[in-house]
Amino acid sequence: MAIGGTAVTPGSGAVAIEETAQLIAASKVAGTPVYNREGEHLGTIEDVMLDKRSGQVAYAILAFGGFLGIGERYHPLPWSVLEYDLSLGGYRVDLDRDRLEGAPSFAASEAPDWTDRAWGQRVYDYYGAQPYWLQVP
Amino acid sequence: MAIGGTAVTPGSGAVAIEETAQLIAASKVAGTPVYNREGEHLGTIEDVMLDKRSGQVAYAILAFGGFLGIGERYHPLPWSVLEYDLSLGGYRVDLDRDRLEGAPSFAASEAPDWTDRAWGQRVYDYYGAQPYWLQVP
């Protein structure tokens, strides 16, 4: 559940405060690699979608699949499935490729209907997580 | 309280889904200008700090003051003080320069003690907002 932390790397970003034990800069989450339980590289976090009203992370967007960027799809993940692994230097998720291939996703060129709550519910159900709109920090 | 939305601008980012009525990509928040009630430009959102455990925005970091980047300071703002103004193409805050100059801030080269909850409380008290660790989405 909790996402662990790395030490602050001075000079690696615009903000010296990019990461602490409790907090992380959104700009640092983007570009972070994601691995499965076996340490196999799955993809990279592309961006983080925030709920405007509450300021809650709605989805971490995982760029997954394809080859050299072709056929790559975006997989919205609940924040809670990402666990930071210091030794890997990336996030570890309890998902294999097959499981991920069957997950709700969309092509890089298309936009899902984020306003469709049933769609959001399906994403959260797939990962067995509580929807962001019901979460209490 | 609520942050309004602009239409999605195709091709302006890597992700076609960078903004909807409810959601916004963190990468899009960064770089967005901030204005006061009078429409005076105050600064730019530098980054968004997320709480690792809850996935809640802890602070939006406003780069403010200085000249040509010299003397600029980072002001952590509660997410709730940012209100998107479509006509300005940026966030509007109910704060003038004097008020902002007296706010908790830190130099770009230094890192505040984010683990110090009293410091966080001081930030939220300054803006009359409820601390992120007490917020219910």
From TrEMBL, chains A, B:
Organism: Siccirubricoccus deserti
Pfam families in UniProt: PRC (PF05239)
InterPro entries: PRC-brl_dom, PRC_barrel-like_sf
Domain of life: Bacteria
Name of the protein this chain belongs to: PRC-barrel domain-containing protein
Span of domain PRC-barrel: 24-99
